[in-house]
User: Fold these one by one.
Assistant:
Number 1:
Amino acid sequence: MKKDSPWYLALWCVVGIAIGIVFVGVLTSVVHWAGTEKFCGEFCHDMTVTYEAYKKGDHYRTDSGVTAGCSDCHLKNESNHFAGPIDYTALLIDKAIAGSKSAWGFVRGTMNTPEKQVEKREEMATAVHQQMIDRNFATCRGCHDVERMYDPKRPILAMLHKGMGPNAEKKVDCLACHPTAGHNYGYVIPFKAAAK
């Protein structure tokens, strides 16, 4: 086949498209895998204490069976199910920053044991809480459509959450009322002694 032949060009276009599809598929799979609880809690980030507290938190097991994982709450745009390319790029950057902070803490030796994780827990919790405030709890609002909230047994819930929907300009602090939504450290018994 001659290099100046249209078939030659078509062949390279098909090969390029196939490589692109495989690349996007692999990238998406790796990003998804790197956002699972198993990855965050056991594989890459050694966050033993945090992972145990997550398993005791309100989002690990729910009445409806719908759960929120690490990425849903901790990464920008993860709970926004209609993210476009710019939002997805921001999510990848956020994931890289979060992962590098964890990895750097592990390499430096400040996060490499459960005892050290307990020591850093307050500092990490404060940083994450501030990040959520700065983002106006967009990750909470990405899953919880409080404007449509309705519980006939507890009608006051809808009234309490009125005006806190995803497009609300009103600043809220979801963790003020829901402190164990993501992690419940009160039940992580084995590491309580190390926290004192």
Number 2:
Amino acid sequence: MKVADFTPDAPFEAGKALRLHDGGDVTIISTGIVTPRALAAAENLTADGISARVLHMPCVKPLDTEAIATAAQETGAIVTVEEGTTVGALGGAVCELVTEISPIPVRRLGVPDEFPPTGSETWILDHYGVSAAGISCAARALLELTK
């Protein structure tokens, strides 16, 4: 279920997540230009009977710890999605928080801490699973762990 619009004029408040899609099975937390891919993944999952919440983090610091804590407790699984490195960014920050407050399975999608291959931005993101299909696959795999 769509909750808020993700448009250039969407409200921005540092440290506050924007809840774009409601769901109770898994949470997808995204930032930056990959948020439309996260929303497409949520729609793919909905078609398969999986209810995915999508949170857009407009910034990593300050981090909306309340929204993440609530998502962890209510959905029990989180996929983070970012166009940059998974080390020291959104995925790392979410993992640090979740391990302290509500340990649950988390899958970080983004560019690993290595020298990436050469290619277009779209190709590199797709190569590392930062696509609607890749995000959906990661969410399904996490849900298998929680069964």
Number 3:
Amino acid sequence: MPATRRERGKTERYYRMRENVVDVAVELFSKRGYADTGVADIGEAAGLARGALYYYIGSKDALLVEIHDRVMDPLLKEAAAIVELDLSFQTRLRLLSECLLWQIVNRHDHVWVFLHEYRQLQGEYRELFREKRHRFESRIRGLLADGHRRGLLRGRPQEDLELATLAFLNLHNYTYQWLAGHRVMRVEELSAFYCDIFFDGILAEPVDQERAGSELEQGRSVLRELRGVKPEVGPRVEA
């Protein structure tokens, strides 16, 4: 779980309690929906009175922003690192696929709330959310543009890059809807399946699988370091 932004004067206990409130809210929002979950419901589930709850979350809207940030902030950090790697276009796009699917698999309830409830955000909160979402989309679009400049993609540069970006995102974003009830599948395996479909549609030449395997492991080591985890078998989609 990404570290919460720290404020001066706040104790470790404060941040532990705040993380617990966010965890509770994620579970309630994903089951009942944002509009049908009241502050009193969250307080009761977290074991906090209304006044204490507001001390930790500020407002219900701020709580929804925190849930969105748990998904978007790691995505932006990892995407920024991936696009700068000295690896092939195909490998970097595959790694973007893996980091997006990692969030979907490991923060399934967060992603449900993220995709279903973002319209509830208003004013500055909504603008901040849109800005972060656009930044991530621009990483994908920029990488596709780089592939086109290198002569690796077919099609018209402007119109097809926009469509390719949307196709890439749509291929991944709604994985959460069918995640349960399917056979066990590693994030890397699911990403390979998606990217085979995607690359077959846009690449001018087939992927060099031997080179891709070596480069992917190099890129994954960067992602493991960003997540602060040791090398291990990749997360699986559990039935």
